[in-house]
Amino acid sequence: MREPWSDLLECWRSGRTAALATVTSIRGSAPREVGSAMLVRDDGTVVGSVSGGCVEGAVYETALEVISSGRPAREQYGIADEAGIAVGLTCGGEIEIFVEAVSPSTFPDLDRLAELVALERPVAIATVVEHPDDEVVGRRLLIEPDAAPSGSLGSPRRDAAVHDDAEGVLATGRSATLTYGVDGERRGLGMRVLVQVFAPPPRLLIFGAVDHAAALAQVGAFLGYDVTVCDARQVFATPERFPAAARVVVDWPHRYLAAEHEAGRIDARTALAVLTHDPKFDVPLLTVALRLPAIGFIGAMGSRRTHDDRLERLREAGVTDEELTRLSSPVGLDLGGRTPQETAVSIAAELVAAQWGGSGRPLRVLDTPVHGPNLPLDLSVGRSS
């Protein structure tokens, strides 16, 4: 399990109590995303971060109080004053933190959560972070896809509503805070539930065992992707040439991608980077890729001339203009780079921009929040009553 959850599990298995502080909502330019967490052990040591240093001191004091009292707390921090007296975010955003005591008695499903994460199976924890009844605050559900939830939020109606919506949040791969009525009414107010998602890392499939692939594999691994390099040429596709890749596969690219799709290992967080710019590899591969709706990003490297030739060949292979709109080619943002490493940064920059909706323009010419879009304080999944 990733930090600080592995440290929390260690405390839990030893029977100790620790405080877990988690970001439940953000507004404006906040440095961490929903679900970011900081652990404070009962010996006073700390793991993780909720703000990059702006409010950690205040959260630490709250965490010690929560360990002592056993009662959860919810804190909000806005803009710090210029004198530095008020605790807050220097970046100008707002952040809400939920702090709870965690022990085997308060979180009996933590061992099961750790087991599922170790198996790289997607799982989510739904925790009530706000409710008029203090006895409901801190209650949890453990949600696995296509399985009955474990735990309870205190009523069958709450459990059913949150379980259904949490499965949708889990499919996105990102944590979120949902709002309900006090008994799970979908259009009501009064109860807020943090859905923390634990999913396997997103995949980056790099096709073409070239020097650009080695650089992109390194950058992709740094960004947290599970990287695969695939090429049909065994002499080039060797683990020694791509040490940053989790796996190096010798297979025809289109055949490998089709097999991964059939095995259920391709989803909306999967990114493809086609670096071969060789028609005998590119055209069959992209013909398969552009017809798989689950893939989140499809990019292909090459010059303008290569791009035009590729589009003509894909149309001859029966790929429609609508399917071609999913192709980012030539892949990468315009950074002016030349080397494989600079090209890898360019491609990675487009991946990040595509994931978070960035413009790719210099921050100095924009007046939008530095840390991403201006999200509402409460995130909700669109749902009917």
UniProtKB/TrEMBL annotation:
It holds the Pfam family XdhC_CoxI. It comes from the Bacteria. Residues 11-78, 118-181 form the XdhC- CoxI domain. Residues 204-351 form the XdhC Rossmann domain. This is XdhC family protein.
